[in-house]
Amino acid sequence: MRGGRxxxxxxxxxxxEAAAVGxxxxxxxxxxxxxxxxxxxxxxxxxxGGRIGEHVPFVRAPMLLLxxxxxxxxxxxxxxxxxxxxxxxxxxxxxxxxxxxHPAWYHNLKANPETSAQIGTERRPVRARxxxxxxxERIWTRAVEVWPQYAAxxxxxxxxxxxxxxxxxxx
Length: 171
Description:
Layout: E1 9-10, E2 13-14, H1 16-47, E3 63-69, E4 76-82, E5 84-86, E6 89-93, H2 104-111, E7 114-119, E8 122-130, H3 133-146, H4 149-156, E9 163-168
Antiparallel strand pairs: 1-2, 3-4, 3-7, 5-6, 6-9, 7-8, 8-9
């Protein structure tokens, strides 16, 4: 102890840095369970033709299935993600729960932007791109309205959380 403070914080509680590290430790241990749950969700969504899975109880934001190809591996993957409607397009938020790194699907879309998404019962070909500054302000506000945790995720990380717009494209 130095000056009345310990490594976890002070007499008033843990520092923000210690709380963020603690959160990341818990989240890291939770990923195996969350991945299994999301795998079941993805299976139900896909195998019901989108009739089950777009709307999840207690979650205000709708969910889509994003197909993407590994940037290095070339492996085809699917991620269930919250989305924000934006006209004929949809936007997804590369938050990864406030982790310091972007999610793998973000890197995959940067390398392979032409892909597809299942939104409810519709499977559509899309082209992924980062939101413009104007789009970002509008979409971020809506994203935080439907999933307030995004604001906490942004506060937890030094990186600016990217917003990816999925534009409908011809098949």
